[in-house]
Each structure stands twice: as C-alpha cells, then as structure tokens.
Amino acid sequence: MAKDKPETVAVHAGHMSAEHFGAVNTPVYRASTILFPTLDAMESRDKPYVYGRRGTPSSKSLEDAVTALEGGTRTVLCPSGANAIATAILSVCRAGDHLLMVDSCYNPTRIFCDKLLKRFGVETTFYDPLIGADIEKLFKPNTTAVFCESPGSLTFEIQDIPAIARVAHAKGASVLLDNTWGTPLYFNAFAHGVDLSIMAATKYVGGHADVMMGYVCANASHAERLHATHDELGLCASGDDCFLALRGLRTMPLRLKQHQENGLKLARWLMARPEVECVLHPALESDPGHALWKRDFTGACGLFGVVLKPASHEALSAFMNNLTLFGMGFSWGGYESLIVTSHTHRTAKPFHTDGPLIRIHAGLEDADDLIADLEKGFERMARAS
Ligand SMILES: *Cc1c(COP(=O)(O)O)cnc(C)c1O
Description:
- It is a single chain.
- By secondary structure, the chain is of the alpha/beta class.
- It folds into two domains: 6-248, Aspartate Aminotransferase, domain 2, CATH 3.40.640.10; 252-384, Aspartate Aminotransferase, domain 1.
- The protein has twelve helices and eleven strands.
- It has helices at 6-12, 39-44, 57-70, 81-90, 107-119, 161-170, 183-186, 223-232, 239-271, 290-296, 313-320, 367-384, and strands spanning 74-78, 98-102, 123-127, 143-149, 174-178, 196-200, 214-218, 276-280, 303-308, 338-341, 357-361.
- Helix 3 runs parallel beside helix 9.
C-alpha cells in the first residue's frame, strides 16, 4: 500500500470516532480518577486508561496523530515546548555525562543546560551550528547526546544534521532535534538520523496563539526511556489543551503553505529595502544555508530574521510602534503576524550585527497588506532619524 502523504495523515491520524458515537473529533476528557468495575480489573490494570495523568482518549488521539505524522514509534506530551526539550535531554543523560548543544539553540534550552543540567552533574559544550562532521573533535568518552536545532533560533543557520547524526551514532550517542521551525511537514527528522524529535506544539500545531504544549516523538530505540522519563517526571497535558492542539494539527499543512508563501514574499520585499542590511531566511537563494535547506527540507515556515542597518532607539521605536497588523509579542506560529527584536546569547561562535536584529512571523493576513504596514513603519522610521 502506498504511504499516505503528510497532508492526508494530518487529517486522519488519531481518529477515534467509532468509540465516540461517530463524533469526528475526540471529545475533551477531563479526568483524574478512572473507575474500575471490580477488584480484579483494578489490580490487573489492563484497561487502556488507568489514571488521568497517565493518559485519556484526548491525549491518546493527539499522541497517535503526532506519532503517525512524525513517522516515529512513540510520542509523549508535555505542558510546554521548553519542558519537552528538558524531558528529551533528561531521557538520554545521567550524572557524569557530556552533552553537545548547538550554540544557536532557543535560549531557555541554553539556560536549562547551564543551570539545571549542570546542577545534576551533566556537562554541556556549545558548538558552532555550522560544524557538520567536524563535531567529531568535540566528542569526549562520556558524550551521550548531541542536540540540534535547525535553523537556529534567531539566527537561522541550517545544520548538516545527517553528517552530525553519522558521527554521533558511530560514537554511540543520541541525536535530539528541536524541529519547531521545520515541523514534521517540512523536515523529516527520523529520515535524517534524529532519535528524538521535539516540537514546541505551542507554535504551528496549536496555530492559534491559545495553547501551551510540547511533545517529544521517539524512534524505536529511544521510545522506552523517553516514556519512562516522562512518567517519572509526572508530566501530562490537559484534555482541553490536547483537544486544541489536535484541532490545530488537522489544518497545519494548509496553514504552513500560506505562512511559507507570505514569509517569502515579505523576506524578498525586505531584502530590497534600503533600511535592511540582510534577511536571514534559508529558503532565499542568497542565504548561506540555502543549499543544505534545499537538500534536506521540503518547505519553510513563516519565521525569519532581519538585520537592519544601524538605527537609533527612537528610529526603531518609530518603525515598530504603531504597526497595525504586526503584534509585538513572544511566541509565534499563530495565524497572526508578529515582530520582535532579538538578542543572541552565544558562547561558541559569537553572532554580531551592527544594526538591530529583528524577527518576523508572517501570519495568514494578505501579504500585500502586511507589506503596506511595514512600508508605513519605514516611513515613520525615516522621519524619526
Ligand atoms: C517557542 C520555542 C520553544 C519553547 O516552546 P514553549 O511552548 O514556549 O515552551 C522551543 N523551541 C523553539 C525553537 C521555540 O521557538
């Protein structure tokens, strides 16, 4: 049988209509206690659901859908993307281990390594995102995992994940990936050698700026320890949030197409502006990561970086304040456009810009309307300079 395309999987995976009177969507299960009919049933624990924290049909539907879309073996749901990252790392590290972490990681990931992991006796070395197979030189006898994020948060470098995975696996180490930007639609983590695929489902899975959620999907060799760690940490996601995330997942392929198209249109327009030094977007032919992106990715989402020419705080405020369609706020992946200033925290390979670094999330509005909004912002900026 031919394998279904991701668009088809996203629509159908995880359905439990037959168990719910034909309702298309699995209803919200709000449950802590699950009652057993008899002493034998309670002691054998062979029911599919035994306690709210350990799963309900709401979480099972979402887990199954994610596992199918990722092409993995098992998925665990976490209360946030940041927590999913921590859970994945804890499942492959013990005291005395060494972790290789990409220098362009999401900053809370860096903080987790520098603070909590260090406190529990795991040492982290941050590495240049462009290191490729040379990562071999950074391995120590106790290196147990390599963590990747591609493209990098804020700076958008594309990593050579297959090259890194080949080295890591030859050394017996696990490969973890924060795949929030690529999503399983545009970057197939397991096909490129990843063992644990992590996503901040808060972003494109939820897709509507109203749910906090993370997941980790494991391949066969990592499923058991991932599940055990998740259970030992006592993690779960609420039925309401599972419902919203699964509802979002159903339309994620369609939304991503539009985010991609709008993002590229804005990126190309910005590249031609005199106020812009450069645009950080791997799907642009001029981007240093474009060749690798083209080899490994099948699309781009709506998130990219822009380096502006040096501008005063007043000029930047004039540009960003009073935009009518771009909101200023953290997170991304919702249907609305966003703009924020970015500050990097690098230690392995500093990332320097002369002018301000900003990050744009292209939402689902009409792209020309978005461009008009930015254009007015640049006019205000010129008047304030
Ligand atoms: C937002 C984000 C996270 C964290 O997700 P939360 O749900 O906000 O905790 C992790 N990784 C990346 C790349 C992100 O952009």
